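Regression check, iron/sulfur cluster case 194:
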Amino acid sequence: MKNNKMLLSRETMNLDFVRKVENLSGSSVRRCFQCGKCSAGCPMRSFMEHPPNRIVRLLQLGQYERVLAGRSIWYCASCETCSTRCPNKVDLAAIMDALRKCAWDAQGPSKESRVQLANRLFIENIRTYGRQYEMRLAAVFNVKSGQLLKDLMLGPKLITRGKLKMFHRKNDNVAEIDQIFARIEAMRRKGEAE
Ligand code: SF4
Ligand code: SF4
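Current build output:
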């Protein structure tokens, strides 16, 4: 029978990675005392192989590779329920954000590459249009993910109900928004931002 026991020791812990996540997120990972309130309120819990409190525990135990390789961080909806519920002020939503960045930097596209693709297209739309352009997001996502007909029949219903617009107007301040992206990229190149 497979032995799934975890060893907890100075050797198995990876404090460097914990510190990196703490720096990126601005939140303590080590402060969590595993009360489970975050997971009890998480709306995406049923889609995750590791619930939010276990993500923190795995980090504390030095099992960060399991966290980065899994799907939980990509199914987090950044709703911040966990951060609001935590009695110990652990900002788990920010930690999830930091972990997505670490996963992206470490291994590029993962087995959850479609979620990553959706994230990337979402950001590209914000930069190009200054706001979200749902029709383009859905169309480009379908093409790039190789699922041309995905949810096609939903389109007309959403358009009829005014939830999806055929055409889109750019935000008047799109040039300023682009400058924000450019500034962040320049800071990253200089090592002043992650
Ligand atoms: S609610 Fe806070 S202290 Fe409790 S398990 Fe979640 S992160 Fe840890
Ligand atoms: S921010 Fe993510 S992990 Fe936290 S409750 Fe929302 S979906 Fe769950």
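Comparison notes: The mean pLDDT is 88. Residues 42-44, 52, 76-82, 92-93, 96 surround iron/sulfur cluster (ligand 2) (CB under 6 Å). No diff flagged against the previous build.
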